[in-house]
Amino acid sequence: MSFGVCIVVMVLVASANWAAEACPPSDRAALLAFKAALHEPYLGIFNSWTGPDCCHNWYGISCDPETRRVADINLRGESEDPIFERAHRTGYMTGYISPSICGLPRLSSVTIADWKGITGVIPRCVTSLPFLRILDLIGNRISGPIPADIGRLRRLTVLNVADNLISGPIPRSITSLTSLMHLDLRNNRISGGLPRDFGRLRMLSRALLSRNQIGGTIPPSVSSIYRLADLDLSLNRLEGPIPESLGRMAVLATLNLDGNLISGNIPATLVNSAIGNLNLSRNKLEGRIPDVFGPRSYFTVLDLSYNNLTGSIPKSISSASYIGHLDLSHNRLCGPIPAGSPFDHLEASSFIYNTCLCGKPLKPC
Ligand SMILES: *[C@@H]1O[C@H](CO)[C@@H](O)[C@H](O)[C@H]1NC(C)=O
Ligand SMILES: *[C@@H]1O[C@H](CO)[C@@H](O)[C@H](O)[C@H]1NC(C)=O
User: Fold this and answer.
1) pTM (predicted TM-score)
2) Closest residue by CA, ligand 2 atom 6
3) Closest ligand to Cα 327
4) How far apart (Å, rounded) are the C-alpha atoms in residues 306 and 72?
């Protein structure tokens, strides 16, 4: 072999290797366009985004080892990474999320969390990323709506846009996300009602929607979500009754409906259920507290304060296994406070501002 041929062979082998290892130029170009729309002044997280291979040592980027396509964007503004220790601060970033990320067709997770200053909207085109499993944009200043066709993301397991400025309704199509396990929309400006067929979200285990402007009633279909453990609808504008079926859910452990306009009676099912954390404070509930407490009643929190509850405190409450924090204050209850172990540690503040409750820890009857 002549020297010249040898060089040609070496160059061919080297470029074949390069082609096998580097990310496709289109992925690299999409990432650089994404980066161009952001400004991160303190940590230098984007300094590593150089060189031809975006799968190699680009901060926050990982690729599928087989296809060498970009699979994850993982940029967290609060983390243990040494880059934060060196800077002695948490992250801050401005700019917006460029639609160019939609040029990364194999994306499986997008986490751009806790940068505090990122504005703009959720690019509508994210709903065309067929492999997307995680979309986590918590803790920015993102505004505008959740894309109406979010339901196209059939593989999505986590949708977290909490602590932003998202407005508009919960898209009806959301109930097509039949893989969704974790939905976190807390602390935004979301309005409108909950989809009637919310119960189609069969895999959901946490639905956290507090601190929005959600109105309408609680759809009874929620109670058909077998795995739902945590339902937080507090501090919204929900009205109407509490569906009795919520108290029959197999693993529902936390039910926060506080700070709404919910009316009607407290369903008996709720006090004798798997629920251990029940906050119904600051609603328009009326009628009596159901007298069906029993050994299955185990509450770390039972907060019924600031309602319009009448009658006496039910005798059966003494048979509850445990009540850690009880608040019955600011109602219209009357009569003696039962004695017994769940009450031994409670203070007057649990009972004040009622019509005529009496006995320890209040004044004798
Ligand atoms: C229950 O909800 C009310 C109103 O949102 C809140 O003030 C209170 O702290 C909550 N109770 C507990 C025990 O967390
Ligand atoms: C409680 O009930 C009374 C009498 O029905 C009503 O006048 C009052 O507005 C109610 N209060 C609340 C907070 O719903």
Assistant:
1) 0.92
2) 308
3) 1
4) 46
